[in-house]
Amino acid sequence: MHLLASGTAPQLPGFLNALAGPLDRFGYWAVALFVMIEDFGVPVPGETALIAASVYAGAGRLNVVLVGVIGFLAAVTGDNIGFAIGHYGGRALAVRWGRYVFLTEKRLDKAEGFFDRHGAWIVVFARFIEGLRQANGIIAGIVGMPWLRFLVFNALGAALWVGTWVSLGYLAGSHITTIYHYITVYGYYLLIALAVLLAAYIAWRLVRRRRRVSMSAQPQEGSEDSRARGS
What we know:
Distance between the termini: 92 Å
Number of strands: 0
Order of helices and strands: HHHHHHHHH
Number of helices: 9
Structural class: mainly alpha
Strand content: under 5%
Largest sheet: none
């Protein structure tokens, strides 16, 4: 189903351009699929797809209201699938199969610690934290959070997350030509500046290491001189 308007799609800057193909071919379906499956643990760029679609909407190629509604429904659905996996499969299932989607036991332990400390409110803000966004529903199901409580807090978090990125992406898309121009013009200067900073950091580390080696060698030389004088 192709839901993009006719005409040439705008050039997206940087990493967003990598998603132009799926958006051109599948439109809103790409947003729904990527957001939903990311939210029950599969490592796909769901958040990036949502931002890219919002940029497209700002450039007049997608309907921003549909992007927001589809993103919200996909996020809630994905997390509820994750909740069912955690609730019915338990920790053993998550540990056994989670490694195939980078959901390791260590990440599960860390996420459970967040839930213990912050309770249901972590469900709201977990979407803004990489790692927790993917494991959010699964952990809630494993720790036994009541489903209706999870549903309410999860929907609130989805609304905030989708609203934030759709708004920012839409604003960026409405100025995509200007933004892309500045990225093109000043991108090389930024890379040069980063290279200079990296070189300075490496030089600083080398100087520091040499000083440590020199300081650690001085006491040994001093003790050898003392033994020589004593003999």
